[in-house]
Amino acid sequence: MLPVDTLLIAGKLSPLKYRMIKSLLQNCGIYQKNYRGCIHIQIDSRFDLNFDLSWYASIFYRYYLHHFDSVQRLDFLMKNIICDIDGVLLHNNNLVPGADEFIHRILKKGNPLKLLTNYPSQTPADLQNRLGAAGIKIDAEYFYTSAMATAAFLEKQDGRKAYVIGEGALTHELYRIGFTITDINPDFVIVGETRAFNWDMMQKASYFILGGSRFIATNPDVAGPKGYPACGALCAPIERITGKKPYYIGKPNAWMMRAALNSINAHSENTVIIGDNMNTDILAGVQAGIETILVLSGVSAEENLDKYPFRPNHIFSNAAAIDVV
Ligand SMILES: [Mg+2]
């Protein structure tokens, strides 16, 4: 067992890499030692743990990612953050007050971050544009959508033909993994979200599912703001006709969480999920063994928590108030 003030910061290093990181540590004036091939740093107890540790972690983290291919993550120092978008950062297209400062603070600190949304109809570039217009400046690579998770799931399944009810962001992900979008003998019926949903789509999807196509859906949300029909609502009539339920990829399915974690090479034990919805975000975190933060700026209210058999690890009024990451 390591002393509490000693932090393991790297995996096994070659002698060359060891000399490189040793000189970096010495330049920072930090005592370090090589222990069983791993570098440890010893933190002076006078340091403000909340500030200094994260500052050093940020420096080392960036240094390692830049220089080494294989790195044991700074799990003791930097939490991976998975953050929901709607109800946490935005209300429709309007900024939740302080959410811009929260995201900019996390980006500056350097925590691995994914902005995770069950909404399948926007590409990362669309989301980047939407958040940018609200004042949150962040690169497209930080987004992860249920359309991307659906493609990650289907990539591991047999069959490459799908009948799709959804928009360009979903079909783009399917083409990217080599799918053919067709209404001739599809292996899958894949439902996302679209305002163009109609009788013909309902009939074709039902016919293919009754004939053996596998029924996949991006997310189980039934409605958005103002009664906006979401994926679950489009699946409902097809379920009634066929008697078959879709396999929903999005939150609270732990698949979505694992796919998002994989996309940043993160491990669930050192990850926190921030969300506004007990039924999706917090349940997904609980099922994936991830630390959970509920913010009260969206759909779930504190007075309704009693009806759930699980609790979030932390509750904050909004993203700006979060002080545990
Ligand atoms: Mg939300």
What can be said about this structure in brief?
It contains 10 helices and 16 strands.
Spell out the helices and strands N to C: EHEEHEEEHEHEHEHEEHEHEHEHEE
| Strand line-up in the sheet with most strands | 8-7-4-14-15-16
The level 1 CATH classification of the largest domain is Alpha Beta
How many strands? 16
Descriptive account of the structure:
With 325 residues, the chain is of the alpha/beta class. The protein contains ten helices and 16 strands. The chain has helices at residues 15-27, 49-67, 99-109, 124-134, 146-154, 168-176, 199-210, 231-242, 254-263, 278-288, and strands at residues 6-8, 32-35, 38-42, 80-84, 90-91, 94-95, 113-117, 143-145, 161-165, 180-181, 188-191, 214-217, 247-248, 271-275, 291-295, 314-316. It has a six-stranded parallel sheet with strand order 8-7-4-14-15-16, sandwiched between helices. It has a five-stranded parallel sheet with strand order 10-9-11-12-13, sandwiched between helices. A three-stranded antiparallel sheet has the order 1-3-2, covered by helices on one side. α5 packs parallel to α6 (168-176), α7 crosses α8 (231-242) and α9 crosses α10 (278-288). It is globular. Residues 1-12, 42-54 and 65-76 have low confidence and may be disordered. The chain binds magnesium ion. Magnesium ion binds at residues 84, 86-88, 275-277, 298.
